[in-house]
Backbone:
């Protein structure tokens, strides 16, 4: 079972790039890494997913080194509306392993 | 299309009672998973159902149970409620049969145990 560690909180100023790193030392071969964003009183929302190297979409990039024991979510030029909790998720829906989330990183964006 | 719907949104129970929460997944999604969210603990996986079968279970006591119906709607039940069961219970659905598909979450059911 993947054990996931991520920072509890981070602060950033508007316009800066924010990098949130997630550690998952015992990630399994089939596991994917997914990041979710959660605002108060809402369920988490998918941001990005990857297996290895780099993935980029319109809102974020995900960097995964060759050993896949960590991953970094990169948010370019954050705004106040990016203030939220970000969850790292490691797993594979195969019926064999539970779906594991980190405890979340609370990002506060300051004007 | 409609998102994941959870009912009720809020409920208050007393210790020793039981509670049943409902989750209607996105149409066509056959996988439903449940999570408990408490401050400081993040999202803790309870169980996952696919085509009416539980195929994954987290590390929770037997007081927590669930089921899935033929229309993919799912319910979870907590019996003999304890104060520590107060939490936001989230369900998520996925359209992937296998592999890691995107999870679509509902807004949750907030349970308070007095």
Residues:
């Amino acid at each position: 079972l993947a054990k996931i560690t991520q920072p509890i909180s981070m602060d950033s100023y508007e316009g800066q790039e924010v990098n949130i790193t997630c550690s998952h030392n015992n990630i399994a071969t089939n596991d994917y890494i997914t990041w979710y964003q959660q605002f108060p009183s809402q369920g988490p929302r998918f941001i990005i997913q990857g297996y290895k190297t780099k993935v980029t979409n319109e809102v974020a990039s995900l960097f995964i080194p060759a050993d896949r024991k960590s991953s970094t979510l990169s948010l370019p030029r954050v705004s106040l509306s990016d203030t939220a909790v970000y969850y790292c998720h490691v797993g594979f829906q195969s019926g064999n392993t539970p779906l594991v989330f980190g405890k979340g990183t609370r990002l506060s964006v300051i004007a | 299309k409609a998102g994941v719907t959870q009912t009720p949104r809020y409920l208050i129970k007393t210790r020793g009672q039981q509670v049943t929460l409902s989750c209607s997944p996105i149409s066509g999604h056959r996988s439903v998973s449940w999570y408990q969210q408490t401050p400081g603990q993040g999202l803790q996986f309870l169980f996952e159902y696919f085509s009416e079968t539980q195929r994954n279970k987290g590390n929770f006591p037997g007081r927590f149970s669930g089921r899935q119906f033929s229309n993919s709607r799912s319910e979870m039940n907590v019996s003999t409620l304890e104060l520590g069961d107060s939490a936001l219970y989230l369900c998520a659905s996925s359209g992937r049969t296998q592999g890691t598909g995107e999870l679509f979450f509902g807004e949750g059911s907030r349970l308070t145990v007095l």
